[in-house]
What does this fold into?
Amino acid sequence: MTVRFEGRVTRGGWTLDVDGLDIGEGVTAVVGANGTGKTTLGRAVAGLERLERGRLEISGNVVDDPASGVFVPAHLRTVGMVFQDHRLFGHLRVIDNVAFGLRRAGIERAAARRQAGEMLERVGVDSETWSKRPAALSGGQRQRVAVARALAPEPDVLIVDEPLASVDAAGRARLRSLLRDAPASQVLLITHDPVDVATLARRLVVLDAGTVASRGSVAEVTASPGCEWAATFLGANVVPGQAHRTSVTTGSGLVLTVASEADGPVYVTFPAHAVTLHRDRPAGSARNTWQAELERVDVDGERARVHLAGPLAVRADITRRSADELELRPGLTVWASLKATELTVVT
Amino acid sequence: MRPGAATRPISDIPEGPLSQPGTPARPISRLPAALTWVGFVALGMLVLPIVGLLQRAPWSALPSILSESEVLEALRVSLIVSLGATAACIVLGLPLALVLARRRLRFPRVVRAVVMLPMVLPPVVAGTALLFALGRRGLVGQWLDSWFGVSLPFTTAGSVVAAAFVALPFFVVTVEAALRQAGHELDEAAATLGAGAWATLAHVTLPTVRPALVAGTALAWARALGEFGATLTFAGNFPGRTRTLPLETYLALERNPEAAVAISLVLVAVALAVLVTLRDRWMPS
It folds into this structure.
């Protein structure tokens, strides 16, 4: 039960050229800068774009192979899609939007509505909303309805394009847990959000300028991101914690001071280059200072990526020169500091 | 920014809300006064004929005039012709609108000009053209005649063809515009949910443009009901077969002006009803 993709797709002047990609079970995150072909990849798998050349297999069936004239249209593929712009049917009630795919599969209206209702409950849309039209919903509700609609017909593959962009704080955690154990056996998650990658993805595909720059498990890709954009993106640190106003208490008890107020469970994200390292306790304005044990240093050209163990497992990017000056080596205890303004709080 | 363009210092931007709440902004008129007056004269020009019609209306005699056998016969022919033409517009116009909106055509401007042509063509010219295309000796008409024994000119079917010819663009243009505005995004979403081409059309595309379907149908029907020139030229003026209400009105004007006014009032009422149907679509509030 995998998606095997090899070939070229052109869409609106952009070309995606994939030299052979296997997308296995679980959540695979597709990351890359804007215009690198993430959405095109998803659309080709769904059957909304044709391959120019190459071959696409879903669960062992060839669904697109221009050389032998095979093209299985979108409605005959077992691929569901959550679009970035939701695309709910404005003339149908919420419940009938979700029942749409079930009805097309030949399920009776009453049964389809019952199943649709169950799915809406799972994504956290209460029954008062079921008889409304999409125009009356908030952005977050629309997004959840779109996810429920795509999941209701139980597709083998679910493609989710930028899922959490417009969801409110409460819905985000719920959607994440829903996507993590989605009934679809394979989820292709197109995303810009380091928290999605950290919390959901089992595997990663990095696209750069229309080609696959890196692929593999999250650890493998993080070690070898394949392009500058991905190196920065994957270098981002994601730390869970409990927020109270401008303080976030992390799992180890270390309290981080942040620039924006929040309450409840949050993720604090910050780029690897925002962490500075010192041999001695630093003086100055940085409020977030802690003593950390140095685990490992990876040198890549002029950049050194320093992995710190407890109290916070974070990555720090520093120049190779300062790494040499600090005489960093595994097992050393160093001081790390972080400016509050560099921290982003994600609910 | 263009070189040399002056930037406004931020301190110049006034503070406070953009507009005072509760007092709707009414811009000071920048129109020359004379233009305003000409505008009202034009409006009067549009209203005056209707007023003329109303002041000559034989209100008390209306029921008896409208129940005269000739008028009832013309009404029957008009209903058959206009409804038949409207049905033809939907059956033929919907596929055409879908092709125009969704297919990539080779010469889109030429095709669209051809579709619009009957809207701007003088109806008499349309009738003449139909005669040379579908008449007994016409391009296609001669084959219709010799193969099927079908002759369209001077028949009710001919009136339907003439009315459909002039009304078709109204339906196609209205529906095509709505289809373009709706885009194909929802059709794609339907496809990923297992809907084939026909199911997508029936359950997503058409329901989405339903207001335009209603508007296009009403416009086409109004145009077909009022059709005069093309019908007269192509189908003639035979009572009970091709003499529609507009033709009856024209004839009545000479022998019985009151009847002409009475029928005209009926057609004005229909036109107003159509405008009410279209109020949300074609008349910005």
Summary: Chain B touches chain A through 18 residues (CB under 8 Å). The radius of gyration of chain B is 25 Å.
